Amino acid sequence: MPFRKNATYSQRPSHAARAAHAKGERMFRNYDTTAIQPKRSPVPAIAALVAVVAVLAVVIYLVASLVTGGFSGSKLLAEGETATIVVAEGEGAQAIGRSLSDAHLVGSASAFTDRVNALNAGSSLKPGTYEIAGGTSVDDIVNMLVAGPKETTFTIPEGSTLKNTADIIENSTGGVVTAADFVKAASDASAYASDYPFLKDVGSKSLEGFLFPKTYAFTPSSTADSLVRAMLDQFGTETAGLDFSYPQSKGLSVYDALKLASIVEKESDADHRATVASVFYNRLASNMRLQSDATVAYFVGHDPTAADVATPDPYNTYTIDGLTPTPICAPSIESLAAVCSPEETSYLYFYFAKDDSGVMQYYFSETYEQHEATYA
Question: What's the half-sphere exposure (Cβ side, CA atoms, 13 Å) at 256?
Fold first, then answer.
């Protein structure tokens, strides 16, 4: 194409020239605008995608939190595991929620309180001891607390000592009543003597022997004192029909009879209580020491050794005359009955051992020579 000079306008261009020039400018401007327009950036689309993913993550997190019971990062209790929760009288949803969170039953205290409020259950949560399994939903926990605790019971076996009884109570109540609290409450019989006439001869000694072996109920309002009283009530009920005239005719008080019954409890089985009782009565009448291994075991805490038997102690009936200072356990009503009505014998000795078949056998003798011969 031949070279063209740049066109110029006269100072007074014609109308046609002006129109042609304007048309060229518009074409030039339209071309340049199109030529320099940038391409659309992908950043807004990526940002929108990230926002959608974030929303979905929050939704999933919220759903998961509702299922697990909260928003805490701590690991919840696994299924098959349990935790014991104690709800005190007057305790509110927030405090209960903290206990549940601390026990890893819910993810956070607020997860519990939110559901309590949503269910309008705040005034219906009942105090007590609850055993809750891992994996229990928040709604089920709320419903459990609204329904109230299942009745908690504990059993004191026959032959239990005060220490045994205290340990059972602490374990059964989840520590609501501690062993130390119970021992303290039962350490001075004089504190209860005005309400229980059978304690009049006990003085300030412990209630060892009077804490009757039975099954008892534990409620949220139970205390060491109330449990002691329940056991003393049971002792009074169980022994009301016993006739203590026989031990009294032998110079024994009701308290002495209880001491003897506690030894019989440890030294006999169901078939030989009355016979064993007769041996101890005969030894007392003959001014012989009782020589009961069970009394030695009481103060040493295990089956006695030869060294234990020779150790002086107020409970060692190998070294003291007569009965122990207190009973050595809580005897069964059958052992008490045996002391109130023993078999009439002349036996002064007995021992028991398992035979070749593993059956426990009792051997009674009137003389030491006969007693020695049974070992042969």
Answer: 15
- The structure tokens listed for 174 are 């989840």
**Structure confidence by residue, pLDDT tens digits, 13-60:** 444 444 444 444 444 444 444 444 555 555 565 655 656 555 565 555
Q: Which structure tokens are listed for 2? A: 């031949």
CA 260, 266, 268, 271 torsion-angle sign: positive
How high does pLDDT run on average in the chain? 86
**Predicted confidence (pLDDT) per residue in 239-259, tens digit:** 999 999 999 999 999 999 999
Q: Where are the alpha helices (DSSP H) in the chain?
A: 15-36, 43-68, 93-102, 109-118, 138-147, 162-172, 179-185, 224-239, 245-249, 254-267, 273-285, 293-300, 306-309, 333-340, 368-373
Other CB atoms closer than 10 Å to residue 333's CB: what's the count?
17
Which residues, listed in sequence order, are joined to residue 155 by a DSSP beta bridge? Answer: 215
Taking every pair of Cα atoms in the chain, the longest distance, rounded to a whole number of angstroms, is: 161
Q: What would the two tokens of residue 314 be? A: 């107020």
pLDDT digits (tens, 9 = 90+) for 317-373: 999 999 999 999 999 999 999 999 999 999 999 999 999 999 999 999 999 999 988
pLDDT for 105-116, tens place per residue? 999 999 999 999
CA–CA gap between residue 26 and residue 43 (Å, rounded) = 34
Instruction: Check residue 89 and give its pLDDT.
Output: 85
Question: Of 257, 259, 263, which is closest to residue 340 (Cα–Cα)?
Answer: 257
**129 by DSSP, 3-state: which?**
strand
| Number of neighbours of residue 221 by Cβ within 10 angstroms | 9
Q: Is the pTM of this model over 0.90?
A: no
Q: Are 156 and 165 a contacting pair, CB within 8 Å?
A: yes
Helices (H), 174-292: 179-185, 224-239, 245-249, 254-267, 273-285
Q: Distance between CA atoms of 66 and 134, rounded to whole angstroms?
A: 15
292: helix, strand or coil: coil
